[in-house]
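Researcher: Final request for today, and then I'll write up notes for the group meeting. The sequence and the SMILES for copper (II) ion follow.
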Amino acid sequence: MRALAIGLAAVALLAGCGGNSVTQPAGSTKVNMTEFKFDPAAITVAHGKVVFFLVNAGNTAHDLAIRDSKDNRIAVSELVSAGDSSVFTVDNIEAGSYTIFCTQQGHEASGMKGTLTVT
Ligand SMILES: [Cu+2]
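Model: Predicted protein-copper (II) ion complex:
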């Protein structure tokens, strides 16, 4: 009994460290972020509510922003630290062609961008 209690305490401690790693929500679109790209870089989703699951598998912080064909930024995720993951929800996105990019200095210019097609 005592050993079990110690074991559970160890598990709780392990779960408490390592940042904001979360599990992927059902129906979300997983996007891996590294230096300096999104994978996949071409994403297609249905219009309406869109949920991205951002996984930073790189060595520096990244985010994911969306701009429309008129260069208006319509949404930006939180900054995701290296090794962390984050759920990014965009409510009510309209059908169209969008660009995804990382807002961190120099990242888009280094190739960290892609396309988002909303059908
Ligand atoms: Cu970036």
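Model: The CA atoms of residues 60 and 86 lie 15 Å apart. Helices lie at 2-16.
Researcher: Thanks, that's everything.
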